[in-house]
Specification:
Strand content: 15-25%
Distance between the termini: 40 Å
Helix content: 55-70%
Structural class: alpha+beta
Strand order of the largest sheet: 1-3-4-5-7
Number of domains: 2
Largest sheet: 5 strands, antiparallel
Shape: elongated
Number of helices: 13
Length: 408
């Protein structure tokens, strides 16, 4: 943000304005937008309170099912509004299950997840790039493995709510029958025993991660099972077969007591089973370390971070469009050309490619009165006039709070 303001406030862009007024009007815009977002954020956090797994306050009253559902719907609407304004894009569930989840990862394991275990699940991404995954030295030396380019999401935002065990069992019973329902629920119960109590149904979990490869999205969910892939299963099977073959060869070639034969077989089996557990543990450790360093925020913290990002993106759009209109009034019909000019400016100045949302930014500037439309022509307040205008809006805002309190 400071870098953008520094570029926009250059005297060369404002030949007829005081540089101090220009810098100050940008600062006024920052604080005014922060005020409006602070009010929205406070209300959103209040809506989230009944569903926050980390809440440490005692509710004044218990919401009815109807009230709870209405509150949740309003909360989800607010969250999706913030996500859109923070430039996130939703990954549809069908795309997750058919395209992303089947993607092979470079860790030598397979992830298994059943999204039907969730009452609600939404995944959003922001920006993607390609990063090279470098295999271990053993894979490079013995298997000739080379760095693999992985599609990586700059930010991933996840919100989910788990079904209760009882609710999921009834659903499985109707769909798959008693045998499959009992097996899946038994596995789910064992898995949830390792989760904290607040992970259950009724709580809405919000998670933000950075730099997540597309193939790793599955491991961000708490119910994901880690399994060895086909290659590792074959390697383990051959290794186990070789060990057993060695024991058989010793038995055939030498006269060995039966007890000793049992001990040899037992040692091979125990050794291979321990090797299997160590292999799984190494994979899980690698995943845990990756998640630890890539997690940005959870629950209320994730909501606050999202609001801050949305506020920053809105401000950038408003400053850019205000600057363009203040320098030269434009017609409403020229808004698309102005959008293209701003995108070209960002590309040439900061080397970033964006899809500038000129209509949304203009709507906010018109509502705040910093830009006005007169017979199809859009005009922005000059910096000196805008300073006085925003100062008066602050006074009106404080007077409104005073009036509201006096009515109580």
């Amino acid at each position: 943000m400071p870098t953008l303001i520094e570029h926009l406030a250059k005297p060369a862009h404002w030949p007829n304005a005081d540089p101090a007024d220009v810098r100050t009007v940008y600062r006024f815009m920052v604080h005014w937008r922060h005020l409006s977002y602070a009010d929205r954020q406070k209300e959103t956090l209040s809506l989230y309170c009944p569903f926050n797994p980390d809440r440490d306050t005692t509710p004044v009253r218990t919401l009815s099912e109807v009230e709870r559902q209405a509150t949740k719907d309003k909360l989800l609407e607010r969250i999706e509004y913030l996500l859109i304004h923070a430039n996130y894009v939703e990954i549809e569930r069908e795309h997750l299950e058919k395209v992303i989840f089947p993607e092979r990862n470079p860790y030598g394991v397979d992830f298994d997840i059943d999204l039907d275990e969730y009452k609600l699940v939404k995944v959003f991404k922001r920006r993607e790039s390609k990063q090279d995954f470098h295999p271990s030295w053993a894979n490079r030396v013995f298997l000739g493995a080379k760095p693999v380019p992985l599609i990586t999401y700059d930010r991933v935002y996840i919100l989910f709510e788990l079904k209760s065990i009882e609710e999921w069992f009834e659903e499985l019973l109707r769909k798959d029958g008693m045998k499959i329902a009992r097996r899946k629920v038994r596995i789910a119960k064992k898995r949830r025993e390792a989760m904290p109590e607040n992970a259950g149904s009724g709580n809405l979990h919000l998670k933000v991660f950075k730099e997540i490869p597309l193939a790793d999205l599955e491991m961000l969910f708490p119910t994901t099972e880690v399994r060895l892939n086909v290659f590792r299963k074959w390697w383990f099977g051959l290794s186990f077969g070789g060990g057993m073959g060695g024991v058989v060869a010793k038995v055939v070639l030498a006269s060995i007591a039966p007890l000793f034969i049992v001990m040899l077989l037992g040692s091979v089996i125990v050794g291979k089973v321990m090797q299997l557990f160590r292999m799984r543990s190494r994979c899980r450790l690698q995943i845990s370390q990756s998640l630890y360093f890539h997690s940005l925020a959870n629950n209320a913290g994730a909501l606050t971070l999202l609001a801050q990002r949305g506020e920053e993106e809105d401000l950038k759009e408003e400053m850019l469009l205000y600057t363009k209109i203040a320098q030269s009034p434009i017609r409403m019909s020229d808004l698309e050309a102005t959008k293209s000019a701003i995108e070209a400016y960002l590309l040439s100045t900061f080397n970033v490619t964006v899809d500038f949302d000129a209509k949304e930014a203009l709507g906010r500037l018109l509502r705040d009165g910093i830009v006005a439309q007169e017979t199809g022509l859009l005009r922005a307040l000059p910096p000196a006039t805008a300073l006085t205008y925003i100062d008066e809006k602050w006074d009106d805002y404080l007077d409104q709070i005073w009036a509201e309190e006096k009515k109580k």
